[in-house]
Amino acid sequence: MTYEKPSVTVDCVVFDDRDRVLLIRRRHPPFAGQFALPGGFVDPAETTEAAARRELREETGLEARDLRLVGVYSKPGRDPRGWTISIAYLVTTDAAAPKAGDDAAEVEFRSDWHEIDLAFDHNEIVRDAIKLRGG
Amino acid sequence: MTYEKPSVTVDCVVFDDRDRVLLIRRRHPPFAGQFALPGGFVDPAETTEAAARRELREETGLEARDLRLVGVYSKPGRDPRGWTISIAYLVTTDAAAPKAGDDAAEVEFRSDWHEIDLAFDHNEIVRDAIKLRGG
Question: Residues 103-122, chain A: which have Cβ within 8 Å of B?
């Protein structure tokens, strides 16, 4: 029996010491030019936690310290490319200036994230991360 | 760009009022004949939460009430069929007698789950669910 398979991505929610959220500006479609959480596709030889650390490093230059699972996002239609399930982590890092790399055209900590229409369901993910943090 | 995709499954941890864990005996390989948590593959048109409710109903006849995310299990090699990521939920149900169905040859609440070599990494999932419950 074969089953259709989803793509699986990871997304990272990183706050700085002023409670700003780390966002990247997407270089590629979908949502090219829009702000999003750092993240990307999981590779077969890694855990989802390892994928989160790798994507954060590739897109922002930051090294993840601790990861806490925020949630699993799987609502049909959440990604225009097709069936995609995302695993979101609340990630702590050492204090350092992020540097845009890989699929990120820009990267910055933003305090006004709630006023920005983030890509995918990333506004919901940030809100859930804040609840998890007890904020 | 195309990416290799994983299979995605859900697993349900259900405790009864005596803190026993709901286990099914697997009808099919891998681990045929061994005990496991109720669960199975996620379908494209459903969320992972809906998949957990559906699989629990199909395999045990029980209706899920509340779901809490236990964890995401993605260690390479955890499923002999290939790359498979599982999303595990701690599930409450109405008190009712489970009935084996679908891929489950038997179903029962077991107090000795920790002495049983459960399929996949299901012993780890039950331990994590107990921690989440604060047990």
Answer: none
pLDDT tens, per residue, chain B with 135 residues: 567 899 999 999 999 999 999 999 999 999 999 999 999 999 999 999 999 999 999 999 999 999 999 999 999 999 999 999 999 999 999 888 898 887 878 999 999 999 999 999 999 999 999 999 986
Chain B CB within 8 Å of residue A92 CB: no
Q: Which of B6, B49, B71 has its CB closest to that of A5?
A: B6
CB-nearest partner of A76 from B6, B8, B44:
B44
For chain B, the structural domain boundaries read 7-133
- Cα angle A55, B46, B3 (rounded to 5 degrees) comes to 35
CATH fold label, A7-133: Nucleoside Triphosphate Pyrophosphohydrolase (3.90.79)
How much is the pTM? 0.94
